[in-house]
Design goal:
Elements: E1 2-6, E2 19-22, E3 32-42, H1 44-52, E4 61-62, E5 67-74, E6 86-89, E7 102-106, E8 110-112, H2 119-123, H3 126-139, E9 153-157, H4 162-173, E10 177-181, H5 185-193, E11 198-200, H6 206-209, E12 214-219, H7 223-233, E13 234-242, E14 261-264, H8 269-273, H9 280-293, E15 301-307, H10 310-322, E16 328-332
Parallel strand pairs: 9-10, 9-12, 10-11, 12-13, 13-14, 15-16
Antiparallel strand pairs: 1-2, 1-4, 3-5, 3-7, 3-16, 5-6, 6-8
């Protein structure tokens, strides 16, 4: 089958950084389903894996952890899906990605595709939505019931990116007052169009721009740069959740007097460790499907990048690495 992969970590400007390859079509066994891939989305994790996680064998490494497609085959232990089901999911970073014609994935981290979206629109959602949902409703312990969050304020750092675009929508749905960070006119407009009540500039001190403190902070960009700003802006007993690795050592004592909490969110944790609650991502995606079909959540697709091939994926990676993308880039199989 056709796929896009790489054999060594190279700058995206190199033609061999991502290549069109032919690999064996996988088979579904156990709890796996085989999906005929209709559309894939590109995320920062793809660029990080390409740059820093080269293949460990002579086979090409295949990236891509946002997929929408159709179930073509099911393993002997599959209970949740049947052949012909339309699905969407983010997969597992410990297995081959979905930048290919077919892909195998554990059914426990797969959801039914929203009926009101086409495959490209659906492929824009899984990874970022799981990340935002787990951060808000598991790490921060928020409720989706807006009546429980009256008067609560959240600051989303990087509100116009892939995760930010869905986090704003979910936070508004939960009844929070949403403040997003954005530094350009187009990102400010996008953040507000997705539901942000106001925006501030993440290149300037937060506290001076905010009218009071915030109860929650979701950091989607540069934990190192924003650490002190976050500590100052956070309300007593507040929560900070970040998805960005810290390269520096930070003083947790800035949170002590406020009895504040800090945690990381990594949406691959459940699949990586095959946790007992791994199936929660199946339930999560099905709940999001319902919200999408009810018109309460909207796709974050902004760029249809053409067919899935090496040339188009290199272009998508280059855009992601620029740090200036808005929403999600999606490619489709022909």
């Amino acid at each position: 089958m056709r796929a896009v992969g790489f054999y060594e970590s190279l700058p995206i400007t190199e033609e061999k950084s991502l290549q069109d390859v032919e690999v064996e079509k996988p088979k579904a066994t156990g709890k796996d389903i085989l999906v005929r891939v209709q559309a894939i989305s590109v995320n920062p994790v793809d660029t990080k894996q390409r740059r820093g996680a080269p293949p460990t064998s002579s086979d090409p490494k295949i990236l891509g952890w946002d997929v929408a497609g159709v179930v073509e085959e099911v393993g002997s232990d599959v209970e949740l899906f049947s052949i012909g089901d339309e699905v969407y999911y983010a997969g597992s970073v410990t297995r081959a990605g979905g930048n290919s014609d077919y892909h195998v994935v554990d059914e426990r981290i797969v959801g039914k595709k929203p009926e009101t979206l086409d495959f490209a629109e659906a492929a824009a959602l899984p990874l970022t939505t799981i990340t935002a949902w787990e951060a808000l409703f598991e790490r921060m312990k928020l409720s989706l019931d807006p009546s429980t969050n009256k008067g609560k304020r959240i600051l989303i750092i990087g509100a116009a990116g892939g995760v930010g675009s869905i986090a704003v929508q979910l936070a508004k749905l939960a009844g929070l007052y949403v403040i997003g960070t954005a530094s350009r006119k187009e990102t400010v407009n996008w953040a507000k169009n997705t539901g942000a009540d106001e925006t501030i500039n993440h290149y300037e001190p937060f506290r001076q721009q905010l009218q009071g403190s915030v109860d929650y902070i979701f950091c989607l960009n540069n934990t190192d740069q924003h650490w002190e700003n976050m500590g100052e802006a956070l309300a007593p007993q507040g929560y900070i959740v970040s998805i960005v690795e810290a390269e520096e050592n930070h003083d947790l004592n800035v949170l002590k007097n406020k009895s504040a909490s800090f945690s990381y969110e990594f949406m691959f944790t459940r699949s990586m460790f095959e946790t007992e609650d791994m199936i929660e991502q199946h339930h999560l995606l099905n709940e999001v499907r319902k919200l999408v079909d009810e018109g309460k959540i909207h796709t974050t697709l902004t760029d249809r990048g053409g067919p899935v091939n090496a040339e188009n994926l290199r272009a998508a990676h280059e855009k992601i690495e620029s740090g200036k993308t808005i929403g999600k880039i999606v490619l489709e199989n022909d």
